[in-house]
Amino acid sequence: MSSNPKPLAESEEEQQQLVTPWEVSAKQGGKIDYDKLIDQFGCQRLDQSLIDRVQRLTNRPPHVFLRRGVFFAHRDFNDILDAYERGDKFYLYTGRGPSSEALHLGHLVPFMFTKYLQDAFKVPLVIQLTDDEKCMWKNLSVEESQRLARENAKDIIACGFDISRTFIFSDFDFVGGAFYRNMVKVSKCVTCNKVVGIFGFTGEDHIGKYSFPPVQAVPSFPSSFPHLFSGKENLRCLIPCAIDQDPYFRMTRDVAPRIGYNKPSLIESTFFPALQGETGKMNASDPNSAIYVTDTATNIKNKINKYAFSGGQDTIENQRKFGANIEVDIPIKYLGFFLDDDAELEHISTEYGAGRMLTGEVKKRLIEVLTELVERHRRARAAVTDERIPLAISLGVKLLQVETLFAVATLRLGTLNQKDPHSEKVKRFLQLFRDGGRVLGVASDGETQ
Amino acid sequence: MSSNPKPLAESEEEQQQLVTPWEVSAKQGGKIDYDKLIDQFGCQRLDQSLIDRVQRLTNRPPHVFLRRGVFFAHRDFNDILDAYERGDKFYLYTGRGPSSEALHLGHLVPFMFTKYLQDAFKVPLVIQLTDDEKCMWKNLSVEESQRLARENAKDIIACGFDISRTFIFSDFDFVGGAFYRNMVKVSKCVTCNKVVGIFGFTGEDHIGKYSFPPVQAVPSFPSSFPHLFSGKENLRCLIPCAIDQDPYFRMTRDVAPRIGYNKPSLIESTFFPALQGETGKMNASDPNSAIYVTDTATNIKNKINKYAFSGGQDTIENQRKFGANIEVDIPIKYLGFFLDDDAELEHISTEYGAGRMLTGEVKKRLIEVLTELVERHRRARAAVTDERIPLAISLGVKLLQVETLFAVATLRLGTLNQKDPHSEKVKRFLQLFRDGGRVLGVASDGETQ
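Predict the joint structure of the above. Result:
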């Protein structure tokens, strides 16, 4: 469809670095050039003054991902802070495409950061599980995509969100009603040529791909969630995500004013590097490229010792003499994400770079940090039982309107059938509404608070 | 996007006759060549033996639209009759794009025929109101499209369907859940090039158009309606429609076996001619090209006397001498649709063609027939009050499962808000379900039968 060949120079440049929602690759053998990405996408760098402002407004230290530049770019984040300073609330929107059974550490990054933002600003959060997208892109069955969405939801819930302010939904369950009406409004404003330009689809791609961008766009608009935001259609939206998702939201921001909605703001992260080195995102098809939240302590130890790319010298003598190249050292990078103590990180980096620490010692510290993180996650996930999860997903919101019942019920039934033991809970839940009255809050076990 | 120019011969042919879901035009000054259309689309002619078979199976005279070739083409209609003869049921699916306030006589044709089929075979019926399509193609607001859908629903209900076997839904209300999951399944099987080939979209068309064909496709599959057809996923579907809708269902039939579903069967009509002559469908933007169900007796009389194209001679003397050309005479065509009495129609045609009847006499009889039809429709429509219609739309089905509650509730809430007086009815309706029990039938006033 884009039959015009691109100018050679641009085409060469694209071969060097490619960042789309489905493919991330640095130029040959190199790292992603994030400065170039900011220029190319037209977003803004998240500078120190913004980070200081976040600290001031939230009255707490900025998250390690802010302090260390993991979240490094934004679009109109200052508008969100302006609004917050005026006393206006906003809401957070993030998501996940459920394409694998277990999440790896890179998948946790946006959720850990979103949890921090939710805690710091005390705002509602919607989490979209794009099971429809993965069904179409990864050629999974509908049922398998939905199963993965449910499994991934457990890992997301385990990140510790404020369940009274969080709404997690699967597209296969939730698309419809106000959400679908917004999809149609967005679709009307985006030509085929436009999505081809943004996403690089071809004529041989199926129309599901052409249909999907509005699905990811509309959670940016509060009117897509009448059960949450009825009467608050002007609420601003902040989207924490990895920068490869930027194309969806460029499109969304382009459309928003044309349909009378606010543009969502974004706060965007770098990619979490593979164990083998920082040349892009991790490769889901290679289990040894990442630490998974299901890895045992032994797995973690072996993977880091065997695969984590080291910037240290090849012999102890050389290491003592020349020190490590910490710019390419994966254990240092990983500690940069997950070791909270700035002083300790600084100490390790200095000592290791100067040759006074060895790779083995740095890896040992990383193994401790990750083992603890994964163990903590495992315990939290274990508490999210099959029994609790559908209610946790669907009822983790203040229920203020009778409409909610139907959104919730529809959502629930997407995952249930008549013979499912949960349908007893639905019936119990229905009873709460039998007089059509208001229910101010429902705990995750289905009882009113 | 279809950058290859078509061979000249084919392109010339297309200029002569164009039939798409959005445009119907005969070759210059001529009529639609339906034989050519059957060849071009690859459907089959509905022959006398099939009509005789319908008569035998239903034990009643075939509908006037069958006897007189209004429904003239089909796809696998014989499979439906085979199944029926074996004692298997099927269901009917038809629809309407709500783009105008009032329906004209041409709009009624598929609904009148569908009512006959429902009565004759005693089968369930789903009616899709594609308000999403019209919002996108006609650039109507979401709210205006939904309003037109509700208005049109009243005219459809007035056609007298068996409300206990009929489910009328608007896409804006109903898309979601199993319906949306089927949309994704279909979308995965249709490339962009394919819809460009079938529907002629261009790169400058918006992606809503590319997304829509699966929405019209999936009512062909019983699994899109779990509240109606749960456990009957192999039920066959018969679609009565005008032949301009064939492209949607060619696509649907192509996809069906690839996703494990039966191909729908079709029974397809010619177009209802404009008052000004038989060169295509009526032009919605010219109110004088059609008789509307809202026209008064005076309107009808004036329109027919003034605009109905006559095949009669220009003077009484010439008419007596040469007779009328009944092949191009619109009053005769219209009587062919709506005058049930075969003997009377035969008599009028013969006398008029032989010059023993004058145009004025034929028009007078047509005015009587249409005035009565429109008056009957008006009375039936008046009985469909605003108060009754949402329940008639959503509850006109046997409610066999608790799931139904949620489909119905979702549907209802698409058209309601908190302040709507109907929400009282929803609450009452919910009470019926408070013990989670089965409800075997709900009448259109919301009470259990």
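The beta strands of chain B are 18-19, 24-25, 44-45, 71-75, 90-96, 125-129, 166-170, 236-242, 265-269.
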